[in-house]
Write a structure and sequence with these properties.
The structure is a homodimer. By secondary structure, chain A is α/β, with parallel strands linked by helices. Chain A folds into two domains: 253 residues, 3-Layer(aba) Sandwich (Rossmann fold); 81 residues, formyl-coa transferase, domain 3, CATH 3.30.1540. In chain A, 39% of the residues lie in helices and 16% in strands. In chain A, helix 1 crosses helix 7, helix 6 crosses helix 7 and helix 7 packs across helix 8. Chain A is elongated, with a radius of gyration of 25 Å. Chains A and B meet through strand 3, helix 2, helix 6, helix 7 and strand 8 of A and strand 3, helix 2, helix 6, helix 7 and strand 8 of B. Strand 14 of chain A pairs antiparallel with strand 8 of chain B.
């Protein structure tokens, strides 16, 4: 049993979310991640709520399993340590504004010359090139400028953001993919590559449907609430005690839905094909809700699921964490403290691999500079 | 100049979005992707609108650069071809319901025995294990059951889905990461692995903030509209002609914002720290909008940006596609037709790599079974 990236060392200069999320996946896949933080306060997320016993649960959820050393890259003595770490690292991750690391003498060109095998992964708001390369960005800005907000929410009302931080996370995941591809590549060539990922680019890359609609029809789509833009019935509906979703994606499923609801409209020309159902989607929704308002969400989800019609409760996070399927998949793990006791929770690794242990616990999120001694000893042994 | 996955062959049995999105990234990174489709109608998305000259722009946006052969895995002659393809492939991707490929004799155990170096990537609604493994899922269901819908939308109103298909795409991206890690790993061991990714698991994995809040406070978060749950001011605001976002993440940026708006509240104890601003967020929003309603979005975004305060228009997809930063990053590419003419548009590759050409065009989305001859000749040469 082994993890695919065991034996690799990732030197992680990133902070907040996009970069640390990438480093987290690399750690879950077996790499040793050394988080290099600025002295004093370290990664900003150490100060993000919620707190438990004075420690951030947010920081723990995404920085468990990593080691920390605090280094000031403007100080000679710390640079000397960083140079030694660079020489031993397989991957460097950074999310500074483009130009910052170059001015410190640790830009791609300098590092590649000193360590040609190193994979150099950069994530930033807008990328290393282009007119806005040096601007800062945040998840909110990426979702707004990148088009995700324009298709999220209810028609006719103000824009809303996707509640998951997709602006940061899509970029973090593309960085991970680029780094892994570069690691594969260097085994053949002996040479590392620079990976350059932009939060803005990443938003467009995950909007394939909106891109297709806009470029073919000439008209950009807007938000559609909970409704799928081109399949019906495929949205949320009201039950007696709240909302649930039905995803009846074809005529067969729609017929089964009509049977379960005792709503004899399967052959009605206004609803007999998907195209017709989409045309008459508001009437269809009101007809369905006329029935579903009479019973609970649990009632309808059970009956529809039993009949083979995809349906689901709209689960809040406490429900998700207790979902039997999530538990069976080991998707909620314990982040230990330094005494080996469960201190925080984190998501499990969604990449399940054969011949790899899928652990139920994670090593602690590090104290700021908490692994300095261990790291310096490792350098000395090297 | 080279792409990291050049020389690799991916045999792609997936259809619709999660799997094809993974295969798309592998193609953009240089792999040759052979899409094995069912005879007759092929991938369902060939029938998804919007259409141009009878072809789906949706299918083109996510299936460009791939080759297609139509095979019925229940027919002897087609299985013989598939077996020969398997023997030459580096990666197999599939998104059937767990059990389907096993019954056809192409499950992980069978395939691994015949081709121990093959990387076998599976994505499904719920994963290969657990009580719901054999249930179908869709993006809508994953977003609902996985918690994303519970944190998206406006407080007090019905749930909405994230407008990007994050239910499918997060899973597709985790599949890509698992496949790439397995490819790296097999160069050391000579052995492939099975990668098992679930749409439901992937939703929880991207909800790090909601998970931390729920597990530390005991209370699951709800939707917050466009507002960041723990930083203020960090949301959308109304201008004279629509909404825009401001992301003033700390006290320094808030002071600059107050100067630009001529709103002398930076030292007001109700707004002097982030915690205070979060407490008084609704009052703060109304004060800011009292000013911003007087001028256009473009006016405010320009002034705030010039002052160093992150702000952005909420761009619709047509605006995104014309964004100068997006253009500078080559993020809108032409999908050619068989005559080499630009037929459709697709997102560029957001993974920018050194020493790799970042092309402005893509090879066509294949006709169903359109590359049979070429593929069979390749097998014969093998």
């Amino acid at each position: 049993m082994s993890l695919p990236l065991s034996g690799l060392t990732v030197l992680d200069l990133t902070h907040v979310l996009a970069g640390p999320f990438c480093a987290l996946t690399l750690a879950d896949l077996g790499a040793r991640v050394i988080k290099v933080e600025r002295p004093g306060s370290g990664d900003d997320t150490r100060a993000f709520p919620p707190f438990k016993d004075g420690k951030s649960g947010y920081f723990a959820a995404i920085n468990h399993s990593k080691k920390s050393i605090a280094l000031d890259l403007k100080k000679e003595a710390d640079r000397a340590i960083f140079d030694r770490l660079l020489a031993r690292a397989d991957v460097l991750l950074e999310n500074f504004r483009p130009g910052v690391l170059d001015r410190l003498g640790y830009g791609w060109t300098d590092v590649h010359a000193a360590n040609p095998a190193l994979v150099y992964g950069s994530v930033s708001g807008y990328g290393q090139t282009g007119p806005d390369a040096r601007r800062p960005a945040y998840d909110m800005i990426a979702q707004a400028r990148g088009g995700v907000m324009s298709v999220t929410g209810e028609p006719g009302r103000g824009p809303v953001r996707a509640g998951a931080s997709v602006g940061d996370i899509a970029a973090g995941m593309y960085l991970t993919q680029g780094v892994l591809a570069a690691l594969y590549d260097r085994q053949r060539t002996g040479l590392g590559r620079r990976v350059d990922v932009s939060m803005l680019d990443s938003q467009l890359a995950i909007l394939e449907h909106a891109l297709a609609i806009t470029t073919v029809t000439g008209k950009a789509p807007g938000p559609t609430g909970s409704r799928h833009p081109s399949i019906a019935p495929f949205e949320s509906f009201q039950a007696s005690d709240g909302f649930f979703v039905i995803a009846a994606g074809n005529d067969v499923l729609f017929e089964k839905l009509c049977l379960v609801l005792d709503l004899p409209v399967a052959d009605d020309p206004r609803f007999a094909t998907n195209a017709a159902r989409v045309t008459n989607v508001r009437l269809l929704k009101r007809l369905i809700e006329a029935v579903t308002l009479d019973q609970t969400r649990a009632h309808w989800v059970a009956k529809l699921t039993a009949a083979g019609v995809p349906a689901s409760q709209i689960q809040s996070l406490d429900q998700v964490l207790k979902d039997p399927q999530i538990a069976a998949r080991n998707m909620v793990v314990d982040v230990l403290d330094r005494n080996g006791r469960a201190a925080f929770k984190a998501a499990g690794n969604p990449i399940k691999l054969s011949d790899a242990e899928d652990r139920t616990t994670r090593a602690p999120a590090p104290e700021l500079d908490g692994n300095r001694g261990e790291i310096l000893r490792w350098l000395d042994e090297g």
